Amino acid sequence: METYFKILSLLAILAIAHPHFAIAEVHSVMVKNRSFSPNDLIIKSGDTVEWMSESSEDCGGPYGDDCVTHTVTADDFSFESGEPSEDLYFTRDFNEAGVILYHCRVHSLPGQDIDSSMNGRITVKAEQTAFRLNAGLNDAWYNPATDGQGFFITVFPELGFVSLAWFTYDTELPAIDINAFLGDTGHRWLTALGSFVDNQAVMNIDITSGGIFDTPTEIQHTDPAGSDGTIILTFDDCDSGTVEYVIPSINKQGTVPITRVAEDNKLLCEALSAN
What we know:
Elements: H1 2-16, E1 26-31, E2 36-37, E3 40-44, E4 47-53, E5 73-74, E6 89-94, E7 98-103, E8 119-125, E9 139-142, E10 150-156, E11 161-169, E12 187-197, E13 200-206, E14 230-235, E15 240-247, E16 252-260, H2 266-274
Parallel strand pairs: 1-4, 3-8
Antiparallel strand pairs: 1-2, 4-6, 5-7, 7-8, 9-10, 9-16, 10-11, 11-12, 12-13, 13-14, 14-15, 15-16
């Protein structure tokens, strides 16, 4: 039971945590021998670039002037490291997408070739918006490796909830002398419901029992909610996702990769995700 409650605690943390928390990076550029190294960076919005000089003790090097002064100056003069220095250290955050050209104003000019002069380029890519679950995912999904099993998934965007029905089989084949009046004796189906944030939903599994085909009966549901296990449903795009499950009662956990059975709703999904 202790392990089970640890798993539930971890799942609760996952439910609260934002699945696409992005950490800004710091990119270093060395200034030496009349060059920026690297002189062509691709970074993402929110990252930081730091420039620092690297001079030898005897001021040697191929140019014989490693300890001369340098600057980091934007070609459009939107930023400047300050007065030329042989002990250069300068940092700048880049929060907007675009291409930024810069140079050393001691040894070059704006607009020069970055491969033949003391110039540099930074390409800032816009931070990608996290994919968000939408009604275009409402479909039948399955893992081709386990044909005959699958999932029906329905997203309720306004409510912020997702429901899932999992059609599968028991963990072992039933004995050959056990018969079912309808369908296969090993058939199993599970349902789950939970809230979602961006591209991920955390859901409690609900196992029902006591029903008879097309007959009003008193149904028993999982009690308490969540004690039959948990599913984490994740989509990174409109084509594929994963179903991560933890079912303590049968000591099973794993991840099922899923893809659409049909692609009728794919265009709707792409249109909704672009908004």
